[in-house]
Amino acid sequence: MGIHIIAEFRGVDPQKISKVEDLREVLDRVVSKSGLHVVSSSFHQFEPHGVSAIYLLSESHFSVHTWPEYGYMALDIFTCGDDGPALKAFELLLEEFKPKIFKRRIIRRDIFGQSASQNIK
Amino acid sequence: MGIHIIAEFRGVDPQKISKVEDLREVLDRVVSKSGLHVVSSSFHQFEPHGVSAIYLLSESHFSVHTWPEYGYMALDIFTCGDDGPALKAFELLLEEFKPKIFKRRIIRRDIFGQSASQNIK
After folding, report:
1. A104 CB contacts (<8 Å, ≥6 apart)?
2. What is the ipTM of this complex?
3. Which of A27, A32, A91, B69 has an alpha carbon 20 to 30 Å from A118's alpha carbon atom?
């Protein structure tokens, strides 16, 4: 029913990810271009730098947490329905932040997943 | 640097997860009891039922998406620092929602993860 892209970006320009105002502009653009639908968004500025950003989407959510001192971002894109917008958002994030290294995991969020049976109470 | 608990609950009482006002009360209690620190929270009511809830935490974030028609919830608890509060929150969520079946995955969100080298550009 849903795709969850879990990603880590390293080697990102710290200037791009230090302040809410800079990061927000980029993330708003990515969300808009990828065809995701925003219900609301919240941002938090850490001092002296670092940002948390969360978009509540009609498709589920999109979050970014940054540690500029390490050039590091942790990203989550969780959407229900068509996978297309989430995959598009991920490609746009790569283009915008140009990490030197990244790790991407894709998880299926499904109601009827096989491995659920491992935890039947 | 961080723990991310990704969970699916099935067989949850639909009454508990249909409306923002009911769900919010439980989630606020779980967050408070587990020692997590809330920066802000956002909720969305789907019609005729179903809720998305996102807590921006000083530790990262906590999100819940519900599909009462399937007795299903998708949960994410992503925290930096000590694992204790995230694990405590998960236990409290099990106690509150009493899923008949659940699936839990734990992912390490780390800046210097080994598998990152697979994607060096």
Report:
1. A5, A6, A7, A90, B119
2. 0.90
3. B69
